[in-house]
Amino acid sequence: MTKYRGMMALLAGAGFSSLAILLLNLDSAAASSILSFLLLPGWAISELYSRSKDLYSPLIVLAANAVAYGGLAYFLLGRYFSRINTEKARYCLALSAVPAIALVSLACVPSLNPMWPVGMQWLAQEEAELHSGLPVGSQLDQSRAFLRARGIAAYEQEVKVGQEIPRREGPSFAVRPGDRLVSARIATDAGQFPCGYAIELGLVFDANGVLRENHVDRLRLCP
Description:
With 223 residues, the chain is of the alpha+beta class. The chain has helices at residues 2-22, 29-38, 40-49, 58-76, 78-81, 86-107, 120-133, 140-149, and strands at residues 155-158, 163-165, 173-175, 180-192, 195-205, 211-221. The chain has 2 domains: 2-107, no CATH class; 120-221. It is built from 8 helices and 6 strands, in the order ααααααααββββββ. It is elongated and about 85 Å long.
């Protein structure tokens, strides 16, 4: 009976975790908060194995939560399995396998699982194009034309006092009196639940209007 109890518990954990992931598609902040809390065990495990500090693996989140809630289900099913025979245990296992496998299958479909990252390839391409389209040594007017052509609204500021400009990623950069700082924040559709991404652009032109530094930073925006 221990074998059937363990299999039943694992199916219950996998089905519950998959359902919680699929329900993240609901347009409800309250529901998302509750579901996100329920999925925390998987997120914590995924962060340990993530190759990127920004992105996590949806499959690891699903598997880890299936094991975590499967353990809880194993404990809760103890009394029930102590009162049934082997034949009924097999029947219950077969009956629960169908919805559990269906939910897991749906949760593995990227278009149905909001935890799969979206738009990351476009984001990387946009960053590369901003680097190549605004090369060090280009003129201010050329850079303005490039930004306008891409529909990017930039803010220009003439530097009066030298200072260090902090960056979210990488070391800060220095601007000197007489420099012109051009900055912009570019919204994107890239993201991974519950966070999205924007691009922060920082261009430093010298007093002659020549681009000296081009900083393109990926900005993670989380609720």
